[in-house]
Amino acid sequence: MPSLLDVVSSRLATLLPSELRSHELTKLLAPHQHSLLLSQRRATLIVTRVRMFAFLFAILTPLWGLIDLMVFTYPLWPGLAACRLMACGAFVCLLLFYRPSGNLFDAYRAIAILFAIPTVFYVASHIMLGGHQLTQFSAAVATGYAFLPFVLMAGLAIFPLTLLENLVLASVLLLAQVAVGYLSWSTLNWPSYVGAFWLLVLIAGVTALASLSQLAFMIALVRQAIRDPLTGVFSRGSGEDILQLHWHAARRSDQALAVAFVDLDHFKPINDMFGHEAGDQALRDCTRKMLEKLRGSDSLVRWGGEEFVVIMPDTDIEQAQIAMRRMVEDGLGFRPDGQPLTASIGLAERCFDCVEDQRQLLELADQRMYLAKSEGRNRLCTADAPLGASA
Question: Which stretches make up the GGDEF domain (predicted)?
Answer without folding.
Answer: 255-385
